[in-house]
Structures are given as structure tokens and as C-alpha cells.
Design brief:
Layout (H helix, E strand, L loop, with lengths): L25 H8 L10 E4 L4 E5 L3 E7 L5 E8 L22 H4 L17 E4 L9 E9 L2 E8 L4 E9 L6 E9 L5 E12 L6 E8 L2 E9 L5 E5 L11 E5 L10 E7 L4 E7 L5 E7 L6 E3 L4 E3 L2 E7 L2 H17 L13 E3 L1 H4 L5 H13 L4 E4 L29 H9 L3 E6 L3 E2 L4 H5 L19 E2 L5 H17 L4 E4 L21 H19 L4 E4 L9 H4 L4 E2 L7 H14 L6 E4 L13 H8 L3 E4 L8 H23 L1 E6 L7 E7 L5 E10 L19 E8 L9 E3 H6 L9 E11 L3
Parallel strand pairs: 21-22, 21-30, 22-23, 23-26, 26-27, 27-28, 29-30
Antiparallel strand pairs: 1-2, 2-3, 3-4, 5-10, 6-7, 7-8, 8-9, 9-19, 9-20, 10-17, 10-18, 11-12, 11-14, 13-16, 14-15, 15-20, 16-17, 24-25, 31-32, 32-33, 33-36, 34-35, 34-36
The structure holds alpha-D-galactopyranose.
Alpha-D-galactopyranose binds next to loops.
Length: 754
Amino acid sequence: MWAFTDECPPQGRNDTMRHQHRSVTLWMMLLASTQVLGAAREPVDYNPDTHVFTLSSPHVTYAFGVNERGELQSLYWGDHRVPDDALPAAKPDTGSSSFDPSTGSTPQEYPAWGSAFYTEPALKVSFPDGNRDLVLHYLSHTLSGSHVSVLLKDISRDVRVELRYDIDPDSGILARSARIENHTGKPLSVQQAAAATWNLPSRSYELYSLSGQWASEWHLDRRPVLPSQTVLESRRGSTGEQNNPWFALAPAGTSEDVGPVWFGALAWSGSWRITVEPDIMRRVRVTGGYNPFDFSYRLAPGESLDTPVFFAGYTPGGLGEASRLLHRFELMHVLPPLAPHPRARPVLYNSWEATQFNVNEAGQLKLAEMAARIGIERFVMDDGWFGARDNDHAGLGDWVVSPRKFPRGLQPLIERVHALGMDFGLWVEPEMVNPDSDLYRHHPDWVLNFPGRPRTQGRNQLVLNLARRDVRDHLFNVLDDLLTHNDIAFLKWDYNRNWSEPGWPEQKPEDQQKVYVAYVQNLYWILQHLRERHPKLEIESCSGGGGRVDLGIMRLTDEVWPSDNTDPFDRLSIQDGFTYAYTPGVMMAWVTDSPNWVNQRSTSLEYRFLSSMQGSLGIGADLSHWNGQDFETARRLVAEYKSLRTTVQRGNLYRLISPRDGSSYSATESVSSDAGQAVLFAFLHSSSLRYPYPRIHLKGLDPQARYRLRMVAGNPEEGTPPEASGAHWMSDGIQLLLKGDFQAAAVVLDRVAQ
Ligand code: GLA
């Protein structure tokens, strides 16, 4: 179940059926409390005459039914204006030929591999007698609030699958997951388990996905869906930068503003896979969950396995609206609630690019004094403060304050940071160990490994096997202790390599591959329990940049680090790609030094600020190199940011001009949820010939209301009215005077009280 429960999976027996009947989840309560009165349909419904289930929001309907064979057949997913009598009873396909009989071509909600079936199954198991055939038929269901649960069972063996559905009545975003239960009395092995199969209406599509690598994350890829299967995946043990577990499917010609889009994101921070393939009838199926590569999960009699949650939605409003729906959903239903933290994301300072590993009390104090001068609210000390950590060859695992660098401990630094009006944050990388560390010298068996085989290092470090109970408890205790004895408001939780040799030798061979599930469950367990024990704690998910950003980790963290690439121009496309799936409210963006270390590009401080102000602002520059003018610029722009950050972090984002595909221009606009404020950022790479900067037409304003224009940076052309209607700014637009190289402007439009 999507773990909006107040329970954490108990270690070891987390997959047993003892926990089958959990209390009503917070998730369901949240959704139920936001039901929109007067919606055409109930959020969930079942028609006993046709055996059709519907999940509905005011804009979206999703329907499936039980067909005459007992299969759970997908029926409809799209605009809500489909009348009930247009939702037919489920009827299996006739099949296309003897090569493609009906069992394979009929779109099922959760097809198991069995019978005649040739596309990607959601579930594949193997029994001890050699049987691998599994055919799931409807057994029973329950409905409540916005939740549907359907129980399926194999036609002869007592293997049951509980399919869980929730719909957010606001956005129409669905949450699906499955629980696989073994009641056969003998062990069985789950070889492949998806959270869901999504069947889309029959038409041709283009697939959008996000790919990248270290310091070059969040490329938006677009390709036609061809008859072959497209695989998006991570085999890395964590989410990864290579692909992100997000997809969108839309017919060719769909734009930012117009056209149907089906989109989804998997809430899992371990190895994952999403496959996209048309079936023989050219209907596109999207199946996602645990990555079946190297996967095997043995279920003893009476045990069960929960899949991650796969979220998905539909909009007729183009890719821009798909992103806005996801952003709102993440802010409302995925991220930890803001309740104990009354403000938006604080403006932070981070020491990494300024000092690297060379941290000490005097140096950090000096940076903190300078940071306070420009209005920083959170001071974060990055890597280098613990153990023998003078470079990346030693110390990871030894989470003890270095007495050489901090002879008085962290407290004097923390107290001074507080006195300067900031709270204090610290970098940690708990899941890793350098072989040159006390922890590894004492516990060489604590890392992922196959005995007698090499232990491949990445950044001179190995991955602790968090699936082990002792490792989990050790890390929890060390971090709990650190947080209990120091007033730490924030942890930057890093993770700087992927898995290799993923052995778990303490387990029986047939249970070792459970590491793919148990590791991530224990990571979530630690994060959740730390948050419970330290309710004011905020956490950033970082993995050498954007290597662990997904809806699973976002449930337990407050912000993410999208990329180690802090070049402000590269960041424009990185941030653009990021926002297809994730809200700018969690997108940390630092202002760093120029020329930038990534590419030696030189840019003005103002340009760097404006690029970072599109997300959650931070400063990562070496402030000791700044002159008075730099401090003045920074003080002014930090103050400006504080006045507009709620709109940027929690408003509706419009990607007006995309920086992708080598464009010289880019622009984004954020509009507050009540349309009272709009913030426009515009960037120019370089002027060419005598072309003017494109005229920018705003979006999402109230056409009747009047808005006053205020320039935060840059200038509009002469004659631009200081105040005009929303209709004017949207239809006539605004002409900015941007010329030269790496220029930027920022504009605020505030609704005028009338
Ligand atoms: C990773 C992070 C950086 C920094 C270093 C510290 O690369 O992405 O921001 O924290 O680790 O070693």
C-alpha cells in the first residue's frame, strides 16, 4: 500500500499477511476530504448489472470491468464526459488469429503471465513443482471513499492479488498498487511484479521520458511509440539519472497547451522498470514496478509482497497542464505536509563549492557571517566535517565530528549560526562507507557483496547493505544521536554511487534477491522514523545531483538536488526537464561562482540569481571572493525572491519558451493559485543579427483583473504600460529589451485591488 499509513513496515515480516488489514490510510482520508461536491459521478462506483467499476474526478473517468471469463478488463480512461451508458460491460476481444488468441489481446488491468499471453505481464511467478502458469480472475471487491480494492485469484491455485486503486478527486490522478499473497501452503517465487498496467485508448502516440547522467540530468526525450517495446529502467539499485520513472504519452501534435496527455510516475527509489508497448490491436500498454532484471522474491506460505505505487493521470490540456497537475498533486499529497514548517522553502547557503572538504570552525563561521548579511535563512555545512574526511578516499561511515576540524564540537558553530538568524543544516551520506574507515574495518561484512568476488568501488566507496537489520539499526541510531545532540534543522542526504555485486550472503541463496525490496524499505523506514523522532527536521534527497528523485523518496523528503551542474545556463534546460515531472517547489538551485567549474562559462551574478530563482533558491558561491557590489546585488535579489517565492514554489508553472533544442531564448512564468501574482523569468543566450527578443505572452492571468508591472531585473520596451488588464498581458504581451550574451530579466505582475 502507498505508505501514507501511520505504520512503517515492520522489519523481517514486513511482507506477511498479519498487516493485511491496515487501518484507513491517511492517503484515503486526504483524498476523501478534498472531494468536489457536485461532481458528475461518485469518486468510485460499481455497477452490479454491468460489473463495471469507475473512478472519477470532475475531469477524468477511469473504468474497468469483469468480463465473462472473469478477467479484470480495462475499459476507459479519459475525459469525464462519457455517459454511464457509454461504459459498456467488459467484453473480451475476439482475438486476431490463432497466433493471437483473445486471452493475450484483451486489455487486462493486471495480467499475469499464463495462458496465451505475449505482451509484458504485470506478474510472473514460479511454483516449486515447475508450474509457471498463472491466470488471475476476479474474486471480490470493496469500495470506500475514493478507494477501490479488487481481489483476484488464480483459476486453480490459491495465489491472490489485491489491486488497490485511489483517485484524487481534485487532479484525477490515480494511485495503483498490488499485493501478491501466497495461500498455496508451499513457497513460490515472484519473478516479476508490477504496480500496474495502464491501458491507453487505441491511437498512435509519442512517448516523452527523462534521461541523463551525472551533471547532465533531465533531458526530455520524445519518440514515436513503435510496435516494439520501449523500456525505461534503472538496474542500479536506486532511481538513477539515466532514466527517471516518469512518462507521458500524447498523440503527435500535442503542445504545451493543447492535446490529450496520459502521464505517470512510479513511487520507488530502487531498481525499477516501465515498459511501453502497443499490443496486437495497437493499444498501448504501460507496465511499471519492480525491475524484473535479477529479481526474485520468495514468498513462504502465508507471506505477501507489496508493490510500489504507480501514479498516473490524464488531461486534455497539453504537456503544460500535465505538469501542473503533477506539481499540485505532489505539493498536496506526496511531500511531507508543511504544517510544522509555516514558511516556504528557506533560502539556504551551502559550503560545498566554496570549501570542498576543507571545512573547519573558523572557515564555516566566516562564511556564516557573510551569508547572514544577504538574508540567508539556513546555513548548511557540506561534506568534510566528520571522521578522517579530508578527501573522498576516507571517512565515510564514521559519523563522528572531526576533533581536528571542530575541537569544540559542532555546538559553537550552530549557536553562532542561530545567533545570526539562520538555522543549521548538515551533509550526510549514510548508506555509504569508504574502505578506509573505522566502520569498514570493524564490519567488512556490512556492504553489498558476493563472497570471494571483487568489491567494485565508486568514488572510493562501497554501498552498505541496508537490507540488513543490524545495518539499518546502526544507521538509525547514529543519525538519531547526531540529531538529538545537535540542533540540526536539515540534513542533505547524499548517495554518490550505484550498486555493484548486490549480494546478501547472510541470507539463503533463494532469498538474497530480496535485497532489491528490503534495502529500499529500510531506507524509507529510517527516513520516516527520523522524521517522527525529530518532527522539525527537513531533508534533501541528493544523489550526486538528481540520481534519486521520485515520488517514493519525495514522500519522506522536503526538497531535492536536481544536478551537481550549477552552471546557470545549463541549469535552464536541466530545470525545464525537471519540471515535466516534479514541482519547482522542491527544485534546489544554487547561485555559484563564475566562471563555473563545469564548463568555465562566465555569467553575471544577476543572471545566476535569476536562473536559480526559478526554483528553490540557494547560494553556493565562495562569499569571500565577493565585493561590496556583489553583496548588494545578492541582498536585493534574496529579498526579492522572498517576496515572490510562494508563487514560484507553490504556484502554477507555464513553460513559455523552452530552452531545449539549442534555443537562444527561454522563459517561464509562475502564477499564484489565486492568480493574484505572476512571476516571469526570461533568458537570452546570445543576440543574433538584429533579431529582437521574442514578445512574451503571459498565461493563466485573470483577464478581467488589472495587474501592475514591476521589473525585478532588466527593462521592458519604452511605452510598456505600468498597469493593464490580464487580457492585455496575455494577448498583447510584453516586449523585453534583452540584448547581448547571457542576459536575463525578471518581471512581477501583481493584481491591483479594485
Ligand atoms: C555530491 C553532491 C554535492 C556535494 C558532494 C560532497 O557530489 O551532489 O553537492 O555534496 O557530494 O561530497
